[in-house]
Amino acid sequence: MNIIKIYIADDHQLLIDGLISALSDYPYLEIVGTANNGKKVLNDIYLSKPDVLLLDLNMPQADGLQVIEKVKATANNVKILVLSNYNANHIIKEVQQKGADGYLLKNGSINDLVTAIHQVANGKSVFENVIPATQKKEAGYFMDDFMKEYLLTKREHDILLLMAKGKSSNEIGDTLFISAATVSTHRRNILKKLGLKRTSEIMNLAASKGWLRE
């Protein structure tokens, strides 16, 4: 069996240490590097030349989505398997659109992880709870016409849906991996574009239009 070279990126050293220990039981898996932030991943990836990058999304200096985009643009031979605590379709779909090769939840088993590593290393896609990129969602959910009418960006769309669920700026920031201050700026812009004054009006609008129906 060919050796699969693994690079582990996560902002929690304890998780990295645990993965190194667990994967050491598999002689055909070789750890070639680790990082606690996205900048180090991008600096190391060309020197360590891994076959598979195990990547957390929530990292400092460069978040997981930025890492996916840059690695796929410059080192497309590296397969990216995202390991995350976030079980949300819109996040998984964005990861998939950025070019990642798989997505696993951190509460899975080591056997699931090893299987997924083999699959992505061999050119297969591995995603959990994903709405396929080719599957068309309801127009009411994506609000295509509404977005065009009010000139909403994709980021504003994502924040608008979370606002409609009553999420705070901190909660939205944690979900989308941006700062609460950035969320607050987007919130003000969204309210201005819609001609509304408060989040409760967005929640009422969402309920009336059925935006949040899965």
UniProtKB/TrEMBL annotation:
Ranges where the Response regulatory domain occurs: 5-121
Domain (HTH luxR-type): residue spans on this chain: 145-210
Keywords attached to this entry: DNA-binding, Phosphoprotein, Transcription, Transcription regulation
SUPFAM superfamilies (UniProt xref): C-terminal effector domain of the bipartite response regulators (SSF46894), CheY-like (SSF52172)
4-aspartylphosphate found at: D56
Pfam entry (one): Response_reg
PANTHER family: NITRATE_NITRITE RESPONSE REGULATOR PROTEIN NARP (PTHR43214:SF41), TWO-COMPONENT RESPONSE REGULATOR (PTHR43214)
Record's protein name: Response regulator
Organism annotation: Pedobacter helvus
